[in-house]
Specification:
Layout lengths: L1 H7 L3 E6 L5 E8 L9 E3 L7 E2 L2 E2 L7 E5 L3 H11 L4 E5 L2 H10 L4 E5 L7 H9 L9 E5 L4 H9 L4 E4 L4 H24 L12 H16 L8 H7 L4 H12 L3 H18 L5 H7 L5 H12 L3 H10 L1
Parallel strand pairs: 6-7, 6-8, 8-9, 9-10
Antiparallel strand pairs: 1-2, 2-3, 4-5
Helix pairs in contact: 3-4, 11-12
């Protein structure tokens, strides 16, 4: 809601980590809302809120899902991982699917042999569901044969670990998968020339991103462009769209729209457009000043500086 209201008023809402591990929120709003000249003004930084000893600015643990029918094994894995991550547990694939509907899961670790729905079927369902296809999936199995490994990978598993295994190996694999996704998101956000499709880690994700980006590019100057309109176009609820976009790109839908506008602006610069005013309006920004502010904040340089670097290279 805060992002939507900020975008409605042509503003920017962001946050930075403070040295003590908390979050400082920053809101920028144009002085003039009704005319064509927007001059961003920095408001006060919002202080981290604390209630009952818990800081809302404190960085939350990433939530991962452990799917294992053997209770002792599941609890052992969950206990070992709970020092680093927030852990949810399921006894089979069907329970896991129900948890996915309710929780914002960042990674799944699943056994293969389970009742009701086994790990292969769960992996296949997750990787073919547009809402969850971006979630990294690790399969655990006692089946030490090539056929089993190939079946897991063919169902879309990102990693395959044979039992018995060391917790160090599992923790390392989880960390590597999450860092890999973070790196994709960071590159997409900070590098002007990086296309949105680089975020795709599965065929389903690639289809989703193509449809999402094509619609946005076609509607950048649409005054009615909103997260709600985007959700309707993608046949998703607003909450499902938020979780999907945030999960695959690391940013909210509002930020995703703004970055798409900026990447289109970069494309226009590369094709020879040099008029800042024209670029701003072609990409749906309310004014050249607001466009320049967003460009500088996203890429650490002004549009003019980027143009100069592009010509020199």
């Amino acid at each position: 809601m805060a992002y939507s209201l900020t975008e409605f008023h042509r503003g920017i809402l962001s946050y930075d980590h403070t040295p003590d591990g908390m979050n400082a929120f920053r809101l920028e709003l144009p002085i003039n809302q009704d005319n064509g000249f927007d001059m961003p003004v920095l408001t006060e930084e919002l202080k981290p809120i604390q209630t009952n000893g818990t800081s809302y600015g404190e960085k939350q643990k990433v939530t991962i899902l452990i799917v294992e029918d053997q209770i002792e094994m599941r609890r052992f894995i969950a206990a070992e991982l709970s020092e680093i991550y927030q852990v949810k547990e399921a006894g089979n694939g069907q329970e896991a699917v129900e948890i996915l509907h309710k929780e914002n899961i960042k990674l799944i670790v699943s056994d293969v042999m389970m009742p009701v729905m086994d790990g292969f079927d769960l992996c296949n369902e997750v990787k073919n569901d547009i809402r969850y296809s971006h979630i990294p999936f690790i399969l655990l199995t006692a089946q030490h044969n090539l056929q089993s490994r190939l079946k897991g990978l063919n169902n879309g598993a990102d990693a395959y670990i044979e039992k018995p295994f060391s917790m160090e190996l599992l923790i390392s694999q989880i960390s590597n998968l999450l860092k890999s996704r973070e790196l994709l998101s960071k590159t997409y956000q900070e590098t002007p020339q990086t296309p949105t499709t680089t975020l795709a880690v599965s065929p389903v994700d690639e289809i989703f991103l193509h449809k999402l980006t094509d619609f946005l590019v076609a509607n950048l100057t649409n005054d009615f462009l909103s997260v709600e309109l985007l959700a309707t176009e993608m046949n998703m609820s607003t909450s499902s769209l938020y979780r999907k976009v945030k999960g695959i790109s690391g940013v909210s839908p509002v930020d995703f729209i703004r970055i798409t506008r900026l990447k289109k602006a970069v494309e226009l610069i590369h094709t020879g457009e040099t008029r800042i005013n024209e670029i701003a309006f072609q990409t749906g920004f309310s004014s050249p000043a607001y466009f320049s502010t967003c460009f500088q904040k996203q890429y650490g340089k002004s549009p003019s500086e980027f143009m100069k670097e592009t010509r020199n290279s």
